[in-house]
Design brief:
With 490 residues, the protein is an alpha/beta fold. The protein is 33% helix and 20% strand. The protein has 14 helices and 20 strands. Strands 7, 8, 9, 10, 11, 14, 15, 16 and 18 form a nine-stranded mixed beta sheet that branches. A six-stranded mixed beta sheet has the order 1-6-5-2-4-3, covered by helices on one side. It has a three-stranded mixed beta sheet with strand order 12-13-17. The longest helix has 25 residues, at 156-180.
């Protein structure tokens, strides 16, 4: 992780700069400017050069845009200009992420950074430096930037903000690592081991292996995972701080690889199916972060983990699956497996855990991508206050969500002929999937939310603080939301 430290502003200009990074904002008439340049000690030596450089790039103030020029045998020896856009948290994250990816030097100094931007800028730096690669890294994978000195007065509040940001970033990176890992390695048992080895003693863990899943009636998880040589698991994590008066259960889809089962996917559709456990990665990482941050809300994460494979023991179209608690699903498609494992975990949560709120996170449908594009998750709930609170938390995290409806007009599509429900009710696919899951929320129906995060769980390109590959989407939103819930109780 890039070292971020504070430097005294009184030393500016009296000690060697080395490489100096200056934030750029869009100026009047579209001309970008360095807002704090006039107040920066020693700036008279290079102000004209900065102005000339900015004059050639009208977009230099765009969030995440980076430009640089050298000053041989002078100090600073290099000046890097980083666009900060509107100056909101999202823009500062983009600026930090872009700097982490493009910096040519190991050690840089940032001047003119406002105090309110420190945490967001550092978050962007740390998330932007993320790399995932099996085996030895290539030279192009190496992060050149090693240390960033922020020329700003250090305070206990800024240090606390940086400490919290470090914790969150580490858990986002953990979720990314879990999701990026190829499924040849990433069996349900492997996933469980990685989580248990995170070493967060405040979090209690329970692992249900196949024999116990059968004994306790988790028929959905066993059906989906029954075709694989790698048996399914149900991982349960609990953070229970003293004095907590609210209990939140987070359920995450954990399909470690999805062939589609007997209703097999086309080859190109299977290429990225190692990401189909992104929901499970999100909820376990967010729970670990909540514990490390000491958020005063009881949190239970449920990760139903299975590999949806073909074999002589694989589940079949027309099978009837009996879920935890007794509700049944008629299998219309073995490629609609995620909702089947989520249903078991949700039914268990309602029957046994007594949560105040129940949220599930899943890379569930391609239909959500068609509706909302590549970067926005679909949320479904009948609870207006819950919707607004999650939307607010997501906006603060820079993770986009959009609420879609749950019209009862489509309920009839989820009814089956020889079972309670049909697991693949058809179009509109994201909505009928959510309606199917709502049936397993039981008495918590009005305190439940479904988050279809299929699209934003993965990115095909570097963008701001995101690296190509798994994004760890949702961890920051959940942490923000849990923090808000805790504050509402204080």
């Amino acid at each position: 992780m890039i070292s971020v430290r504070f430097g005294s502003p009184t030393d500016a200009g009296t000690t060697p700069w080395g490489t100096l990074v200056l934030p750029v904002v869009p100026g009047a008439g579209g001309k970008p400017v360095v807002a704090e340049l006039a107040n920066l000690a020693g700036s008279a030596d290079f102000a004209d050069e900065v102005a000339a450089f900015l004059a050639d790039d009208e977009r230099a103030g765009d969030a995440g845009r980076v430009g640089s020029f050298s000053r041989p045998l002078r100090d600073p020896s290099r000046i890097t200009l980083v666009g900060t856009g509107s100056g909101d948290a999202r823009s500062w994250r983009k600026a930090g992420g872009a700097l982490a990816r493009t910096a040519r030097d190991a050690d840089v100094t940032v001047a003119g950074l406002p105090a309110e931007a420190v945490a967001s800028f550092a978050e962007g730096l740390w998330l932007g430096e993320y790399r995932f690669r099996l085996g030895e890294p290539r030279p192009s994978d190496e992060v050149k930037l090693q240390r960033v000195t922020l020329m700003i007065q250090e305070t206990s509040e800024l240090e606390a903000a940086l400490d919290a940001t470090r914790i969150i970033v580490r858990q986002v990176s953990f979720a990314r690592d879990l999701t990026n890992t190829p499924s040849l390695t990433k069996t349900p048992a492997w996933f469980v081991d990685q989580v248990l080895h995170q070493g967060v003693p405040e979090v209690a863990a329970t692992v249900r292996e196949p024999d116990r899943l059968i004994e306790e009636g988790f028929g959905g998880i066993m059906a989906v995972g029954g075709g694989s040589a790698h048996g399914p698991r149900l991982l349960e994590l609990t953070w229970s701080p003293p004095g907590a008066t609210k209990h939140v259960v987070l359920v995450g889809k954990g399909i470690t690889y999805d062939t589609g089962g007997i209703d097999i996917k086309p080859v190109e559709a299977m290429q990225l199916m190692r990401k189909d456990m992104g929901g499970a990665a999100t909820v376990v990482a967010a729970t670990l972060a909540a514990a490390q941050l000491g958020i005063r809300v009881k949190v239970t994460a449920l990760a139903p983990l299975a590999e949806n494979m073909l074999s002589g023991s694989a589940w079949r179209p027309s099978d009837v699956v009996r879920h935890y608690g007794g509700m049944t699903s008629e299998v219309h498609s073995t490629d609609a497996e995620g909702r089947v494992v989520l249903a078991d975990a949700m039914a268990y949560a309602v029957a046994e855990l007594e949560p105040d709120l129940l949220l599930d996170f899943a890379t569930l449908t391609g239909a959500s991508r068609i509706a909302l594009g590549k970067t926005t998750a679909a949320i479904f709930t009948d609870n207006e206050a819950l919707a607004k609170s999650v939307e607010s938390a997501a906006a603060l995290a820079g993770e986009s969500v959009w609420r879609l409806p749950l019209p009862d007009d489509y309920l009839k599509e989820t009814v089956a002929e020889i079972a309670d429900l049909n697991n693949a009710a058809g179009n509109p696919g994201a909505i009928t999937a959510a309606l199917y899951l709502r049936e397993f929320a039981g008495s918590l129906r009005d305190r439940w939310m479904h988050v279809d995060m299929s699209s934003p769980a993965w990115t095909a390109e570097n963008d701001g603080e995101l690296r190509k590959g798994a994004t760890g989407w949702g961890v920051r939103t959940i942490v923000n939301w849990l923090s808000d819930e805790a504050q509402s109780l204080s």
